[in-house]
């Protein structure tokens, strides 16, 4: 008897990612599962603001569009789809999935969904009970911003997703499930791994880590040899083929891109601060001795991943209103583009001092020169002198909208009232809300996650 194999595709890397690779792998990937990651810290806050304006918003509509395109085919092929596209409005996402299933006459289609990660309404009570929710970055207490909170969502793990799969779900939609849990859950469901099987759980987490960012593991955003990636306009996303003893990463042969030792090494190190202690809700993974080897073209084996006991607490990501911002741009042309841009920035700062601007942050960047590389940018005199053009970007953050407005009327006049060779683009700047992130932790026993099934009749 041949060894059991489970095939999982990584269908999305973020909210707004291309749907092409997801559609391709449903059609040509011979999948058992496709997991789609849509969420990030900022995404949750944006979704909450959308929901505040419209009670039917707050989820990733892109996911519904993917289901409209290939949901019926996935159901007919028995490909189960898992996603955290529910954002802060899982119930409405379920309603939309139900509509798609009914439109396609998918009788018996089971929609699994997980509730309980959204703690926005519980936070005041928990704070009254003495929980301080200390900011893990700077040690402040949450009470300092309690009136500015927009959203509060727990990063949770595999358990409620597995429960949905055990009840026969064809699709599972969640809120802030950890990215890797979307991939670990089906592997534990299929192989029956025990909660104490740390090494296999860590292997499943690494499958998730390699697939959760979509095309970044198959030639997209590839630093080593981006010129050598074929057909990037049809970039395929990574697919994992997992057995009890082996893990391979590949892609469809109908898509562009490449899966190589080097593309996967770049993804392995992405967002990993300590390779020996990669912390997730389900396990602490040790990838410090991971082995990556090319098995065949576009097929790479991953080995030697170890696991340790999961953490006691869960990460709680809180978004809050952190004030207002204005950002604007002025472009300066050769000759002496950088010198002109610097001079313009100096003019604006002097004007803001006369207006007594009260800003929490002021940032000035020179795009095309040192906006990305900052203090390590090449500032050779000849290079700087011969820059064809430099864009001066200035951004401010204030606590009040009126303070932020002070800078707006000072930008456009610099086309005629400042250094020569300037152009103003992007239209008149506007004041925008700023969303801040408050990272903290919460004991597991304070979070009540529920698994639910809705069957389409």
Describe this structure in words.
With 457 residues, this protein is an alpha+beta fold. The chain folds into two domains: 6-117 and 155-310, no CATH class; 119-154 and 312-447, no CATH class. Helices cover 29% and strands 25% of the residues. The protein has 13 helices and 19 strands. It has helices at 20-28, 41-53, 61-76, 90-103, 123-128, 159-166, 181-191, 198-211, 261-268, 337-354, 381-385, 401-405, 414-417, and strands spanning 6-12, 33-36, 80-83, 110-115, 149-154, 171-173, 239-242, 247-250, 278-279, 284-286, 291-296, 299-303, 306-308, 313-333, 361-367, 389-398, 422-424, 432-443, 450-455. The chain has a ten-stranded mixed beta sheet with strand order 11-12-8-7-1-2-3-6-4-19, sandwiched between helices. A hairpin with a 4-residue loop joins strand 7 (239-242) and strand 8 (247-250). Helix 1 packs parallel to helix 3 (61-76) and helix 6 packs across helix 7. The protein is globular. The chain starts with 5 loop residues before the first strand and ends with a strand.
Task: Give the tags.
19 strands; single chain; 29% helix; 2 domains; 457 residues
Main beta sheet strand tally, sense and closure: 10 strands, mixed
Number of helices: 13
Number of domains: 2
Strand order of the largest sheet: 11-12-8-7-1-2-3-6-4-19
Specify the helix fraction band. 25-40%
Task: Give the beta-strand count.
Answer: 19
């Amino acid at each position: 008897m041949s060894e059991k194999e489970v095939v999982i595709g990584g269908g999305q890397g973020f909210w707004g990612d291309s749907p092409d690779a997801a559609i391709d792998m449903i059609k040509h990937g011979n999948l058992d599962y496709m997991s789609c990651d849509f969420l990030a810290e900022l995404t949750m806050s944006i979704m909450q603001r959308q929901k505040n304006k419209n009670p039917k918003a707050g989820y990733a509509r892109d996911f519904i569009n993917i289901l409209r395109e290939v949901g019926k085919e996935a159901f007919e092929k028995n490909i189960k789809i898992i996603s955290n596209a529910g954002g802060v409005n899982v119930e409405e996402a379920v309603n939309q999935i139900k509509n798609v299933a009914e439109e396609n006459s998918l009788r018996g289609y089971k929609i699994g969904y997980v509730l309980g990660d959204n703690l926005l309404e519980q936070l005041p009570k928990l704070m009254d009970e003495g929980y301080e929710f200390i900011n893990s970055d700077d040690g402040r207490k949450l009470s300092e911003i309690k009136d500015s909170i927009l959203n509060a969502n727990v990063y949770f793990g595999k358990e409620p997703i597995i429960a949905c799969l055990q009840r026969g779900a064809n699709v599972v939609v969640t809120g802030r499930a950890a990215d890797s849990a979307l991939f670990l859950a089906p592997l534990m469901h299929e192989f029956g791994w025990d909660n104490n099987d740390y090494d296999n759980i860590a292997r499943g987490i690494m499958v998730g880590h390699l697939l959760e960012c979509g095309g970044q593991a198959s030639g997209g955003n590839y630093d080593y040899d981006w010129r050598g990636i074929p057909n990037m306009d049809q970039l395929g996303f990574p697919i994992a083929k997992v057995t009890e003893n082996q893990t391979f990463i590949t892609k469809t042969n109908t898509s562009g891109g490449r899966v190589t030792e080097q593309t996967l090494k770049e993804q392995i190190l992405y967002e990993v601060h300590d390779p020996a202690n990669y912390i997730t809700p389900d396990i602490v993974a040790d990838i410090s001795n991971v082995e990556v080897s090319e098995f065949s073209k576009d097929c790479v084996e991953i080995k030697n991943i170890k696991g340790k006991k999961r953490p006691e607490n869960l990460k709680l990501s809180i978004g809050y209103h952190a004030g207002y911002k204005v950002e604007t741009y002025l472009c300066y042309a050769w000759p002496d583009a950088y010198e002109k841009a610097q001079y313009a920035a100096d003019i604006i700062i002097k004007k803001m001092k006369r207006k007594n601007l009260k800003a929490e942050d002021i940032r000035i960047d020179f795009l095309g020169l040192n906006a990305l590389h900052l203090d390590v940018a090449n500032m050779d005199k000849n290079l700087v002198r011969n820059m064809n053009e430099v864009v001066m970007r200035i951004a401010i953050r204030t606590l009040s909208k009126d303070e932020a407005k002070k800078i707006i009327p000072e930008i456009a006049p610099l086309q005629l009232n400042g250094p020569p060779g300037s152009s103003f683009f992007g239209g008149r700047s506007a004041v925008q809300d700023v969303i801040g992130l408050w990272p903290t932790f919460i004991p597991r026993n304070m979070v009540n996650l529920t698994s639910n099934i809705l069957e389409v009749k």
